[in-house]
Amino acid sequence: MIFESLAEKLQKTLGKLKGKGKLSEKDVNNAMREVKLALLEADVNFKVVKKFINNVKERAVGHEVMESLTPGQQVIKIVNEELTKLMGETQSKIEFASSPPTIIMLCGLQGAGKTTTSGKLAGLFKKNGKTPLLVACDIYRPAAIKQLQVVGSSIGIPVFSMGDKQNPVNIAKAAIEYGKKNGNDVIIIDTAGRLHIDEDLMNELENIKDEVKPHEILLVVDAMTGQDAVTVAETFDNRLGIDGVILTKLDGDARGGAALSIRAVTQKPIKFVCMGEKLEQIEPFHPDRMASRILGMGDVLSLIEKAQASLDAKKAIELEKKLRNQQFTFEDFLEQLQQMKNLGPLDQILEMIPGMGSKQLKNLKVDEKELVKIEAIIQSMTKEERQNPSIIDGSRRKRIAKGSGTSIQDVNRLLKQFKETKKMIKKMGEMEKAMKKGKFKI
Ligand code: GDP
């Protein structure tokens, strides 16, 4: 889970306040001491923590909390609002140029995820109707050009490259000419990184900046490096003047220090976050939604957006019809499983659901392997069996178990679950009909 250890501690501390009918100043102070510790342990910049705690305390011991009916919840609301403020309040979008192409320069240290993120961004823009061009300006890291080409071809986006013998400034210039001729409205330049910040790197980036005048300079930083990421952001900003940050590897960041400090320290917004190596694992950054996720309040809006982007609306309507008419088969079930996979890892989806705090998620132990098993069982069924499971007798069960590498018990369990689900859907359908006729009232 993203920011797992921070989320767990904050939720535990604030959970203690929730049930209290009245809060004393001492209660608030005690809770804030624990919140402070949790933030420091999460590697949040200490100045940021100090200011944050003061802001919360100032508001929490005032009248708005002490005299309200649910003081604990008021404190949680304040923490949520202050966390949101810390991360920049509102979403900070990419400013597309009024006369295209919009030129975006990606920079950062080696290994931060620049090349991967260039592809992710291009893919996201393409989904939104743009025609991006990727530009390979990292001529030093072995295989960086090839990597970008592989990424580009996997999502159908052209990659401009002139090999590794040309000066990156010339490559960038030529790429823009090429992009203009070919109608590319967004040009994403993947620049070189180094293991550490050095003069040569900064000079090269400055030269590219001066020559191509990018509309946006985005710094890619690895969230798992915590305060180092904040220092990198400060340094790049001082030299280059960045417009925003893309935080990568949030999927492996249990602490959240970088995400919570970067904006407050550099005054530059986080524009996107990446949560995995796959090309679709990028999201626009919404401070309010992230604060809610950290506090276990879910993120329904992102979930809906993800679903809209990944699921097929027409198929969803068809499915609903089938469910109503009792025609739901294992084939539909299989399709559902596959669509669900498009949404991303199950634990990342679940934590967007309100009430799915870190504790609940741990208890739930989402077992993706179980889903793989179910998929294998359905795939081992014949078409006829999928449509009419009642024909699956003992010998067929044996064959399916063997074919899917599972046990007969696994097959039996799935068949039983499926039957019960169908029964339940039928009951719900009958209830709905009765309600419509006015025969059934709640
Ligand atoms: P570059 O040197 O900055 O261009 O970095 P790369 O794009 O080559 O990425 C370095 C490594 O980080 C690769 O193995 C990527 O697959 C991985 N990576 C990039 N973004 C993410 C992310 O959001 N989550 C995870 N888990 N890995 C990532």
UniProtKB/TrEMBL annotation:
<dbReference type="InterPro" id="IPR004125">
    <property type="entry name" value="Signal_recog_particle_SRP54_M"/>
</dbReference>
<feature type="domain" description="AAA+ ATPase">
    <location>
        <begin position="100"/>
        <end position="247"/>
    </location>
</feature>
<dbReference type="GO" id="GO:0008312">
    <property type="term" value="F:7S RNA binding"/>
</dbReference>
<dbReference type="InterPro" id="IPR022941">
    <property type="entry name" value="SRP54"/>
</dbReference>
<feature type="domain" description="Signal recognition particle SRP54 helical bundle">
    <location>
        <begin position="2"/>
        <end position="87"/>
    </location>
</feature>
<comment type="subunit">
    <text>Part of the signal recognition particle protein translocation system, which is composed of SRP and FtsY.</text>
</comment>
<dbReference type="InterPro" id="IPR004780">
    <property type="entry name" value="SRP"/>
</dbReference>
<feature type="domain" description="SRP54-type proteins GTP-binding">
    <location>
        <begin position="101"/>
        <end position="296"/>
    </location>
</feature>
<dbReference type="GO" id="GO:0006614">
    <property type="term" value="P:SRP-dependent cotranslational protein targeting to membrane"/>
</dbReference>
<dbReference type="GO" id="GO:0005525">
    <property type="term" value="F:GTP binding"/>
</dbReference>
<keyword id="KW-0963">Cytoplasm</keyword>
<dbReference type="GO" id="GO:0048500">
    <property type="term" value="C:signal recognition particle"/>
</dbReference>
<feature type="binding site">
    <location>
        <begin position="190"/>
        <end position="194"/>
    </location>
    <ligand>
        <name>GTP</name>
    </ligand>
</feature>
<dbReference type="InterPro" id="IPR003593">
    <property type="entry name" value="AAA+_ATPase"/>
</dbReference>
<dbReference type="InterPro" id="IPR013822">
    <property type="entry name" value="Signal_recog_particl_SRP54_hlx"/>
</dbReference>
<keyword id="KW-0547">Nucleotide-binding</keyword>
<dbReference type="InterPro" id="IPR027417">
    <property type="entry name" value="P-loop_NTPase"/>
</dbReference>
<dbReference type="InterPro" id="IPR042101">
    <property type="entry name" value="SRP54_N_sf"/>
</dbReference>
<dbReference type="GO" id="GO:0003924">
    <property type="term" value="F:GTPase activity"/>
</dbReference>
<dbReference type="Pfam" id="PF02978">
    <property type="entry name" value="SRP_SPB"/>
</dbReference>
<feature type="binding site">
    <location>
        <begin position="248"/>
        <end position="251"/>
    </location>
    <ligand>
        <name>GTP</name>
    </ligand>
</feature>
<keyword id="KW-0342">GTP-binding</keyword>
<dbReference type="Pfam" id="PF02881">
    <property type="entry name" value="SRP54_N"/>
</dbReference>
<keyword id="KW-0378">Hydrolase</keyword>
<dbReference type="InterPro" id="IPR000897">
    <property type="entry name" value="SRP54_GTPase_dom"/>
</dbReference>
<dbReference type="InterPro" id="IPR036891">
    <property type="entry name" value="Signal_recog_part_SRP54_M_sf"/>
</dbReference>
<protein>
    <recommendedName>
        <fullName>Signal recognition particle protein</fullName>
        <ecNumber>3.6.5.4</ecNumber>
    </recommendedName>
</protein>
<keyword id="KW-0694">RNA-binding</keyword>
<comment type="function">
    <text>Involved in targeting and insertion of nascent membrane proteins into the cytoplasmic membrane. Binds to the hydrophobic signal sequence of the ribosome-nascent chain (RNC) as it emerges from the ribosomes. The SRP-RNC complex is then targeted to the cytoplasmic membrane where it interacts with the SRP receptor FtsY.</text>
</comment>
<comment type="similarity">
    <text>Belongs to the GTP-binding SRP family. SRP54 subfamily.</text>
</comment>
<keyword id="KW-0687">Ribonucleoprotein</keyword>
<dbReference type="Pfam" id="PF00448">
    <property type="entry name" value="SRP54"/>
</dbReference>
<feature type="binding site">
    <location>
        <begin position="108"/>
        <end position="115"/>
    </location>
    <ligand>
        <name>GTP</name>
    </ligand>
</feature>
<keyword id="KW-0733">Signal recognition particle</keyword>
